[in-house]
């Protein structure tokens, strides 16, 4: 099977890190195609960045459909454009926030999320509610470092994340930690070992969930709101995004 892992920001080093994490957990027989859009924000740190990252994500889904991709991972903790991507895709599309939260709920009765900037906590909070995880999510914490600090080997991001996780375990009554950024994908194994609790990275979990869904033949339902978009003209600079209906819809 072919799984396309999309890093919605345009920072190639973060895409490479996400690719390595995905390839490390993929089953034999699973081909991982990791990419980031050609256009968009170098990092996603708020609603505006997120909104504008969606165009690039949908462009990558469109290319994936033409290339026979079986399933997709959206590797940004805001799960940007998830439902729009599902409208375009035949196969399953899984967001790393959704995947990580569900995995945490299988192995703990409470988890805390550790993300980057405080201003993005509200985005995670909305997803916690959307995904029915309010019962499990103990707290959403931020290390208040910009996303791209994670790309700087010399920054103290790792130490700061470790300290925030340790505090979460001491104060929040959490049994597991969910890492709140695709750029933290490479940290989960070491943090789990150092902290002695499950520290969950959504990229790894999302790849395994997509593998499971595809192997079960579970594709995105085309009945109702996730049916292919209704074909209509788009004007201005988005005219090329007008959906051309090649598939039957309900
Ligand atoms: C992410 N931003 O996963 C989010 C994390 C965040 O560029 N990749 C980003 O802080 O919202």
TrEMBL record:
Any Pfam family the entry gives: Asp_Glu_race
InterPro entries from the UniProt entry: Asp/Glu/hydantoin_racemase, Hydantoin_racemase-like, Iso_Racemase_Enz_sf
Source taxon at top rank: Bacteria
Stretches assigned to coiled coil: none
Signal peptide: none
Protein family (similarity comment): Belongs to the HyuE racemase family.
PANTHER family registered for this protein in UniProt: PROTEIN DCG1 (PTHR28047:SF5)
The protein's name: Aspartate/glutamate racemase family protein
Organism listed in the record: Gloeocapsopsis crepidinum LEGE 06123
């Amino acid at each position: 099977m072919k799984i396309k892992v999309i890093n919605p920001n345009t920072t190639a080093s973060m895409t490479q890190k996400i690719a390595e994490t995905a390839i490390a957990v993929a089953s034999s027989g699973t081909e991982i195609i990791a990419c980031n859009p050609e256009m968009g924000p170098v990092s996603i740190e708020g609603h505006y960045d997120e909104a504008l990252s969606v165009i690039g994500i949908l462009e990558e889904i469109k290319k994936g459909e033409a290339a026979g991709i079986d399933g997709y991972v959206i590797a940004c903790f805001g799960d940007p454009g998830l439902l729009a991507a599902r409208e375009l895709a035949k196969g399953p599309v899984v967001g790393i926030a959704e995947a990580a939260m569900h995995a945490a709920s299988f192995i703990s009765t409470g988890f805390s999320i550790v993300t980057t900037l405080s201003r993005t906590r509200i985005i995670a909070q909305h997803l916690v509610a959307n995904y029915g995880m309010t019962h499990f999510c103990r707290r959403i914490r931020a290390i208040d470092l910009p996303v791209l600090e994670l790309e700087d080997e010399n920054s103290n991001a790792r130490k700061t994340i470790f300290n925030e996780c340790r505090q979460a375990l001491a104060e929040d009554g959490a049994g597991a930690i969910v890492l709140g950024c695709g750029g933290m994908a490479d940290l989960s194994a070491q943090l789990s070992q150092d902290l002695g609790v499950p520290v969950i990275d959504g990229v790894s979990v999302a790849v395994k969930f997509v593998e499971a869904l595809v192997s079960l033949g579970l594709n995105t339902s085309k009945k109702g709101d996730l049916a292919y978009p209704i074909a209509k003209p788009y004007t201005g600079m988005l005219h090329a995004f007008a959906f051309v209906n090649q598939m039957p819809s309900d």
